Amino acid sequence: MMAIARLDRPAVFVYGGTIRPGAERRDIVSVFEAVGAHARGAISDRQLREVERTAIPGPGSCGGMYTANTMASAIEALGMSLANSSAQEACRATSGSTPSVPARPWWRWSSAASGPRTS
After folding, report:
1. CB 75 within 8 A of CB 86
2. pTM surpassing 0.85?
3. Cα separation of 69 and 51, whole Å?
4. Residue range of the domain that includes 68
């Protein structure tokens, strides 16, 4: 973003999207909590591995409002990225919960962007 601003050239930041929650709505915070519970002896090794295995099912930035999602939101608020792009998921679910498939590319968000204008 600093280079885009410094070079004074037309550019748009395209954010790849956030990760989907895993099984039972597990996310990165679920892993943090499970590690703490395991350290206290509240859950077994098997339960910890299950949370770790199912919490992060595919591609995307960390699911919490941490650096990647915060910066994507700030960059969108500055008008330097595509509108509504900071809240998009990196993948969408298929008929089952897994596997995931890549989300529709940003240039296909509307049918109007699918071809040249005629008028």
Report:
1. yes
2. no
3. 23
4. 2-111
